[in-house]
Amino acid sequence: MGALLREWRERRRLSQLQLSLDADISARHLSFVETGRSKPTREMILRLSEQLDVPLRERNGLLLAGGYAPVYPASSLDAPELDAVRTALRQVLVGHEPYPALVVDRTWHLVDGNEAVQLLLDGASPDLLAPPVNVLRLSLHPEGIAPNIANLGEWRAHVLSRLQRQAAATADPALRELHAELRDYPCDQPEPEVELPGAGDVVVPLRFRRGGAVLSFFSTTTVFGTPLDVTVAELAIESFFPADQATADLLRARAADRS
Asked: Which residue of 57, 136, 147, 203 is most buried, as measured by CB atoms within 10 A?
């Protein structure tokens, strides 16, 4: 447990002194915990995990390594105790229409999406749309929606940078493997090493070809604020908003035609 704790502290770039101050324990005691000279209590492991912002799944791992049972459940998303969570997710997705929104898990597999998401999926290979759908693989794969992304180089650089940061923050090997896979996909556009705004840009846009038009979106990410279940903690809602008036008008017109 001490070695794992030290890895998380070093990953967060904290000294023993800083972590001990944050957690209100002595630096000497923290040193003894990390070297195995002192066995921490369950409460101490949870306190240090909280200060290090360790994900709930990995907090359970630290507890197991320390000789304690996990405290955070990992419920199936269709379990009765998550009825309120599923209802809330569906309300957010439906309420976001006519703009696309989707729910993903920790490794970017599609959990749910609203009707407007279909707008982005036209032309993708059926193999990539077969469950479980990984939305990052779908977005960058040459047989996915990558051919429809007008600014593929810019968007690809953004996605890979974000995924790399997420993998580093969570120490999740599945995310590292996904990053390595996506990095090997071909791209015929230059990829900026640093995200620099273009004229009028305030966020990295997704510019998507649809028929003869180019739709422009920006996205936001929503997570549960106080999760105590591993499954809930690893869910995120990706909501796409129109980045210009033409995109907003087209999406509203599309929704009106369906009604």
From this structure: 136
